[in-house]
Amino acid sequence: MKHFQWMLDAEQRIRDADAYVLVSGEYNCTIPPALTNMMDHFPPSAYAHRPSAIVTYSLGKHSYLLKHSHEESGLSVCLS
Question: What's the gap between Cα 9 and its chain centre?
Answer without folding.
Answer: 17
